[in-house]
């Protein structure tokens, strides 16, 4: 659509150049110079959007993933729906699973060094009180030195364990680019990009129209049954609720805000998934389902010890039982509220 808008804008610009006369719009008189400036600005915006999309669709990572999917399909002879699923599982196993394990190791190390802080704080307070008497510090000076020493001790622990808090975002740094790249690669296959005249692109598109299954025989069309879009929303909400239920401490205000934000985004993804080709929706559902399984797997203490994640006090001994009981309590409370709302008090009668 951006290409069509760009062409339309170029046509308008050419028309203004061929007819250099004044144009009256309502009560305002617009000179050809004004029209040219407006059209050039509009063209610049559309060209920027079109150029960004073209650059992304023709980027090297997208090309590698796109060609890799085609090669996997040709090598295995699998239908395209199975190729999409297999590629998704393979890439997430190679990229996001190791990052998720590493992120959990960083979180565990941060929790471990936080357990050392109370003793350090006690020593720093004693040293600060001694220094106030020896050097005649004011309370303000003592507070400044105490905070400086406390920060230094915390940084020393972070360096010792190599667990900078910024590393807790490493999973997002890998997962989001991977999601974007594979989404654009699948979109390229449906749109026969970057070269619609290439025979390989036309063959891949034709195979996609025949490579579906069940209720989506044509992977280039929408999922009119809405099974995949709804499943995507349910899976994403399940991931969020499992992460919230697995916390052993009360969430902070910021955590509550982000949890509600991600709940809203999960619901928003349902109509978006309903408006894209079913092969792209299939990828999103497969990726989210893998993420759900990955989160559940890394809750197990046995799995965590196997991959080298150290034990911490916040770790659940029986995580699946805890999540089950938490969900049961929430459902019970929800059904209780619904039941109380359905019960209306009997009308009062006056003698």
Automatic annotation (TrEMBL):
<comment type="similarity">
    <text>Belongs to the OXA1/ALB3/YidC family.</text>
</comment>
<dbReference type="GO" id="GO:0032979">
    <property type="term" value="P:protein insertion into mitochondrial inner membrane from matrix"/>
</dbReference>
<dbReference type="Pfam" id="PF02096">
    <property type="entry name" value="60KD_IMP"/>
</dbReference>
<dbReference type="GO" id="GO:0033617">
    <property type="term" value="P:mitochondrial respiratory chain complex IV assembly"/>
</dbReference>
<dbReference type="InterPro" id="IPR001708">
    <property type="entry name" value="YidC/ALB3/OXA1/COX18"/>
</dbReference>
<dbReference type="GO" id="GO:0005743">
    <property type="term" value="C:mitochondrial inner membrane"/>
</dbReference>
<dbReference type="GO" id="GO:0032977">
    <property type="term" value="F:membrane insertase activity"/>
</dbReference>
<protein>
    <recommendedName>
        <fullName>Membrane insertase YidC/Oxa/ALB C-terminal domain-containing protein</fullName>
    </recommendedName>
</protein>
<feature type="domain" description="Membrane insertase YidC/Oxa/ALB C-terminal">
    <location>
        <begin position="80"/>
        <end position="297"/>
    </location>
</feature>
<keyword id="KW-0472">Membrane</keyword>
<keyword id="KW-0812">Transmembrane</keyword>
<dbReference type="InterPro" id="IPR028055">
    <property type="entry name" value="YidC/Oxa/ALB_C"/>
</dbReference>
<keyword id="KW-1133">Transmembrane helix</keyword>
């Amino acid at each position: 659509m951006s290409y069509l808008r760009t062409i339309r804008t170029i046509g308008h610009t050419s028309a203004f150049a061929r007819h250099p006369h004044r144009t009256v719009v309502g009560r305002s008189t617009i000179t050809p110079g004004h029209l040219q400036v407006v059209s050039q600005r509009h063209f610049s915006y559309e060209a920027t959007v079109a150029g960004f999309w073209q650059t992304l669709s023709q980027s090297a990572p997208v090309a590698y993933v796109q060609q890799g999917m085609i090669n996997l399909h040709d090598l295995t002879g699998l239908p395209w729906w199975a190729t999409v699923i297999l590629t998704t599982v393979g890439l997430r196993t190679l990229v996001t699973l190791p990052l998720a394990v590493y992120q959990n190791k960083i979180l565990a190390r941060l929790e471990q060094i936080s357990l050392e802080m109370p003793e350090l704080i006690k020593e720093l307070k004693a040293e600060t009180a001694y220094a106030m008497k020896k050097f005649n510090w004011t309370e303000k000076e003592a507070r400044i030195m105490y905070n400086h020493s406390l920060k230094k001790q915390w940084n020393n622990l972070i360096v010792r364990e190599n667990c900078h808090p910024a590393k807790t975002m490493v999973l997002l740094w890998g997962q989001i680019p991977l999601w974007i790249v594979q989404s654009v690669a699948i979109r390229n296959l449906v749109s026969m990009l970057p070269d619609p005249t290439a025979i390989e692109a036309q063959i891949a598109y034709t195979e996609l129209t025949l490579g579906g299954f069940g209720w989506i025989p044509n992977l280039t069309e929408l999922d009119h049954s809405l099974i995949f879009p709804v499943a995507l929303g349910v899976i994403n909400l399940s991931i969020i609720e499992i992460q919230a239920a697995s916390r052993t401490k009360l969430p902070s205000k910021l955590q509550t805000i982000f949890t509600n934000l991600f709940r809203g985004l999960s619901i928003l993804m349902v109509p978006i998934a309903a408006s894209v080709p079913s092969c792209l929706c299939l990828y999103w559902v497969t990726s989210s389902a893998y993420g759900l399984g990955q989160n559940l797997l890394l809750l197990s203490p046995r799995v965590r010890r196997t991959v080298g994640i150290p034990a911490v006090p916040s770790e659940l001994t029986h995580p699946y039982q805890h999540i089950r009981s938490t969900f049961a309590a929430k459902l019970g409370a929800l059904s209780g509220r619904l039941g109380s709302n359905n019960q209306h008090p009997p009308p009062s009668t006056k003698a």
